[in-house]
Design a protein that fits this description.
The protein has helices at about 5-15, 50-70, 80-85, 95-110, 120-125, 135-140, 170-185, 270-280, 285-295; strands spanning about 15, 30-35, 40-45, 85-90, 150, 155, 190-195, 195-200, 210-215, 225, 230-235, 240, 245, 265-270, 300-305, 310-315. The protein has a single domain, classed as ApbE-like domains (T-fold). It contains nine helices and 16 strands.
């Protein structure tokens, strides 16, 4: 059974540009596509047509290049090679940079962010969301970020049968890379959505970008926020399920689906990659754990929606 885990995350993230921005005074140039199994989009503000077309072209090329590194479902991707062989020699520098970020978030979240969960996720997908207890135990034994070795010469696993997914952070990382690419080409006002959202400068109405936060792709945004020169990532544990059964977010400690603490967790941070990883892990945390976790970060904001309309807002400046 082939299932795009990231499609669940991207759909449940539910980011949408607020209505009315396209009709504002400044000209916009929009582009939409698909990467890592999810819709991606870009909106540029205040640029002439030729310049915008050039920027869209280089964005697409960079996106395709990075997708060939991090895709779970392209057989020739760097990640697929690593998972198939248990090692990857001379890994690309982007992969090493991202794994460094993974390690930092893994430590900050006491192991709740753990990309070695892919073997367990595959077990759930192959069993239509209801694997046997023995299957869960066997897959869970292959989880452990401490079993991943990486350096300039090689990435390898200590245990046979381990697999890595970067779907809980790669979209944020790619968003950061595209944002940096645009900024290096003189762009000051844009919104970049490569699975997670980065808001640069102002929208076409010369106000901060308004981003909608939803729990499901087929529902209107439950809340909107204003962003400028920051990123936001959302995880909705119950927004989508594996084969209609289990939450798409699994707990690496227990091997079980995410508890129903929150219907939606959004994290705002200057880095989309950091926001992406933290939103995934925070979905598995209660409020006190979130408070403790974010003490290690600067400029982070969490908006968590719980049952019966309960909402939690945490901020570290």
């Amino acid at each position: 059974m082939t299932v795009s885990r990231r499609r669940f995350i991207a759909i449940t993230a539910g980011f949408a540009l607020a209505s009315g921005q396209a009709s504002a005074a400044q000209a916009t140039a929009d582009w939409q596509g698909v990467a890592l199994g999810a819709r991606v989009q870009l909106r540029l503000v205040g640029l002439d047509q030729d310049h915008a077309a050039h920027l869209i072209d280089i964005t697409r090329n960079e996106l395709l290049r990075l997708e060939k590194l991090f895709s779970l479902y392209q057989p020739g991707s760097a990640l697929s090679q690593l998972n198939a062989e248990g090692r990857l020699q001379a890994p690309p520098p982007e992969m090493l940079e991202l794994l460094g970020q993974v390690g930092a978030i893994h430590r900050a979240t006491d192991g709740l962010f753990d990309p070695t969960i892919q073997t367990l996720w595959t077990a759930y997908a192959n069993a239509n969301g209801t694997p046997t207890p023995d299957t869960i135990v066997a897959a869970h034994a292959k989880i452990g970020w401490e079993k991943v070795r990486f350096g300039a010469g090689e990435i390898s696993f200590d245990q046979e049968g381990m697999q890595l997914t970067l779907n809980g952070i790669a979209q944020g990382y790619i968003t950061d890379r595209i944002t940096a690419l645009l900024r290096s080409n003189g762009v000051t006002d844009a919104v970049v959505d490569m699975g997670e959202v980065s808001a640069m400068g102002q929208g076409p109405d010369q106000k901060p970008w308004r981003i909608g936060l939803a729990e499901k792709s087929d529902q209107p945004a439950a809340q909107s926020i204003q962003l400028s020169n920051k990123s936001v990532a959302t995880s909705a544990p119950q927004g989508m399920t594996i084969a209609g059964q289990a939450s798409h977010i699994l707990d690496p400690r227990t091997g079980n689906p995410a508890p129903q603490y929150w219907s939606r967790v959004s994290v705002i941070h200057p880095s989309a990659a950091i926001a992406d990883g933290l939103s995934t892990a925070a979905s598995l945390m209660q409020a006190d754990q979130m408070r403790s976790c974010i003490k290690g970060f600067a400029c982070v904001d969490i908006i968590a929606a719980g049952p019966e309309g309960r909402q939690l807002r945490l901020r570290v400046t």
